[in-house]
């Protein structure tokens, strides 16, 4: 049953939005609460709705529109490929696919060299899981509680956040380990590695891979200490397990480097990518492996594929996007803007008692709220993520939305991840709207 609030919201929908709500599922939502906004345009870091409201995109939509909303080079490459030939089977190829494969070998860390293309982050993770299993001959995958790896059956099973609970029972052999960081937790980040070491030992050489986001994204922008990821790789290898780094959100300039793994100078055995790979212009996932893993499949079947694996229009977008990052020097730009953003957020946080912590790296920042000044007490629980109704963090985002800005959030954290093309002036504009919106959480604090 719709509440009065929802009825008011529904009454404000235009024809397109009402039709959409009736015929299209809203994702990760109680359908009665869905309230789609019709979007009619985008330019740079802004996008405009059907009522003429123009908003600054401070979260690059779902942390994916890294090139903003007017990357014409990518749009042109897609149109050109669509006209040349929109689709050919994966056993055929195009110059764009070959070149994007080569470019990924160039920009990914170390000797990562051969790529399987799919259409999303979740599929990139599914491929990584399957490759790790086929290569090692083992079946278990260890991941961490504060993580998101996708919505399909394998990737939701290795996901740690509460959304996994609704998909259980999970894929057999999926093990969850403690995280390097938790807001208010007493477990030291490096101590969590001792648990992982012990857990791998106790699993007795049955774990194919340890799968982590090098910098945790949707679960709150958690950056481990510098020595964490290199040590995790050693521990995994000591137990005969591979290291898979899920770079779906952390990659393509987000962390002020090409990839989150670069922040820690680590080359994983398998890397997954999507989102920024095409600047979100086309759905494309990628799973890139080392030469040793690639060589295994010379005489063992690579038993995987999709109709749209390496879809010509999607790889055209990917190639043009990667060339844009390179030719427009967007990685150094992201690093520079990231430092500026970090400083500005610290300044704003100092004025708001409801900010418990600001953390992150590059253009990947989290503002976590507290309901008790000077402490780290979340406004809600993790399970609120799958409950009905709005949380305080939703209300902060809602305030920003009304004032001209899109600001994503998850559980108790505002997720700041603008397009990497953002300028200093645009950061200033966004931070001013955030400053105003944080009054909502200040007012909601316990006395
Ligand atoms: N891995 C990570 C780290 C992600 O952030 C996401 C999406 N938020 C996924 C995987 C799944 O990607 P997709 O939504 O494209 O399936």
From TrEMBL:
Task: Tell me the first and last residues of the signal peptide.
Answer: none
Q: Does the keyword Transferase apply?
A: yes
Similarity-based family: Belongs to the class-III pyridoxal-phosphate-dependent aminotransferase family.
Which is an annotated Pfam family here?
Answer: Aminotran_3
Query: What's the protein here called?
Result: Aspartate aminotransferase family protein
By its UniProt entry, which InterPro entries does this protein fall under? Answer: Aminotrans_3, Aminotrans_3_PPA_site, PyrdxlP-dep_Trfase, PyrdxlP-dep_Trfase_major, PyrdxlP-dep_Trfase_small
Task: List the keywords (alphabetical).
Answer: Aminotransferase, Pyridoxal phosphate, Transferase
The terms under GO molecular function for this entry are: pyridoxal phosphate binding; transaminase activity
Q: Does the keyword Transferase apply?
A: yes
- From what organism does this protein derive? Salinigranum rubrum
- TM ranges: none
Cofactor(s) annotated in UniProt: pyridoxal 5'-phosphate
């Amino acid at each position: 049953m719709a509440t009065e609030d929802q009825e008011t919201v529904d009454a404000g929908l235009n024809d397109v939005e009402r039709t959409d709500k009736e015929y299209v599922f809203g994702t990760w939502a109680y359908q009665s609460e869905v309230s789609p906004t019709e979007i009619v345009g985008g330019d740079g870091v802004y996008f405009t709705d059907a009522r003429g409201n123009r908003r600054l995109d401070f979260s690059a939509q779902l942390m994916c529109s890294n090139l903003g909303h007017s990357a014409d080079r990518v749009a042109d490459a897609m149109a050109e490929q669509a006209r040349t030939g929109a689709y050919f089977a994966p056993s055929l190829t195009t110059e764009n696919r070959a070149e994007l494969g080569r470019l990924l070998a160039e920009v990914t860390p170390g000797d990562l060299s051969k790529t399987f293309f799919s259409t999303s982050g979740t599929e990139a993770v599914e491929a990584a899981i399957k490759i790790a299993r086929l290569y090692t001959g083992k079946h278990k995958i260890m991941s961490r509680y504060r993580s998101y790896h996708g919505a399909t059956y394998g990737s939701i099973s290795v996901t740690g956040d509460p959304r996994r609970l609704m998909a259980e029972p999970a894929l057999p052999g999926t093990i969850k380990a403690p995280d390097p960081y938790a807001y208010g937790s007493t477990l030291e980040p490096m101590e969590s590695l001792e648990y992982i070491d012990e857990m791998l030992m106790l699993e007795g050489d049955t774990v194919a891979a340890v799968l982590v986001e090098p910098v945790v994204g949707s679960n709150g922008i958690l950056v481990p200490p510098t020595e964490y990821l290199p040590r995790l790789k050693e521990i995994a290898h000591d137990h005969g397990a591979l290291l898979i780094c899920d770079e779906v959100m952390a990659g393509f300039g987000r962390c002020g480097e090409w990839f989150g793994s670069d922040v820690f100078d680590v080359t994983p055995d398998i890397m997954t990518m999507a989102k920024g790979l095409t600047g979100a212009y086309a759905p494309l996932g990628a799973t890139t492996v080392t030469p040793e893993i690639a060589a295994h499949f010379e005489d063992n079947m690579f038993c995987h594929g999709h109709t749209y694996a390496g879809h010509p229009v999607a790889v055209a977008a990917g190639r043009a996007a990667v060339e844009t990052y390179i030719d427009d020097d967007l990685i150094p730009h992201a690093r520079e803007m990231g430092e500026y953003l970090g400083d500005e957020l610290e300044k704003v946080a100092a004025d708001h008692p409801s900010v418990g912590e600001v953390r992150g790296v590059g253009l990947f920042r989290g503002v976590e709220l507290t309901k008790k000044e000077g402490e780290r007490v979340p406004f809600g629980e993790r399970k609120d993520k799958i409950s009905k109704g709005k949380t305080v963090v939703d209300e902060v985002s809602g305030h920003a939305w009304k004032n001209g800005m899109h600001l994503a959030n998850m559980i108790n954290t505002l997720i700041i991840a603008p397009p990497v093309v953002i300028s200093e002036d645009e950061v200033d504009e966004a931070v001013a709207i955030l400053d105003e919106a944080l009054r909502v959480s200040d007012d909601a604090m316990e006395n």
